[in-house]
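Pilot study result, target chain (303 residues):
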Amino acid sequence: MYQRITNSASGGNSYPPMESRDHFRNGVSPKNQMSRYKLFLLLSFIAVLSFSSMAQDVIMLKTGADIEASVKKVGEDEIEYKKWDNPSGPTYFIRKSDVFMIKYQNGSKDVFNTTAQPQTPSTPSTSSTPSAPSAPSTPSISSTSSSDLQKEFYRISDDNKALLEFFKRNDFLEYHNRFKAACKMKKSANLLLGTGLGVTGAGVIFHILGKANAKAAANASSLDEALTKVQMADILMDTGTTLIVTGALSTIGSIPIYAIAGSKKKDIKNDFAREYFGVTGYSYQPKLNVGTTANGIGLTLNF
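Predicted structure:
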């Protein structure tokens, strides 16, 4: 099977070639086989991580909490599901009115309609005295239009111009005026920031010119020329210092205005979502969880 080699220095002992001794019959060395085995394990681990991060449904509650689940049924009033980390465990039920959205494992979403402002049923009165006129109530939204408005609101919530048009088109004038004022405040902050940076830059240029004149004064050919350049250097540097201080104050002053405007815009969106859709906030941040799932240990990205 092996080629016989005679080594005269070793007394005529014969050994198979090194390459032949290191290979199996199928032509794959143990070293290569081990590398393939490690590669297979790595690919298997990556596949498990990918599967575990995508193969669960996420039930988002109006309270902001998330439930990792396997949704079995979405009924008229309730949602039936099993916990993702216990697929053989009991079946749980949750009211649809408590759920904001379900993100399914295939990437699709269900955003559930919520009732508008609940109305307390009036008790029939036996008195013939006419009742006093009721106070104006918050404008209600029909169940069909509420679902459409909710989807549109979440789709355009990061577009200031589209959101202003949304409030105006649907007669949410109070929210339109509040959001418009917040947007104007943010524009003012941007203008103040831009002005501050520009003025600061101009001050730096004046400082550079002043230093250049001071340096040129040292090389002046006459005393009068040197005094002129020194005076010009002083004027330029004083002007530059004034501009730098003014620009820095303007830049620093824009920061709290910008932050207040952003906070106002976020509060307006949250107030609107809470009043008309019954949710506690308009945005959900992605979360990365590490733990056990039905397929083993893996990473779960919820967004």
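One observation from the pilot: The chain has six helices and ten strands. A full batch analysis is planned for the follow-on phase.
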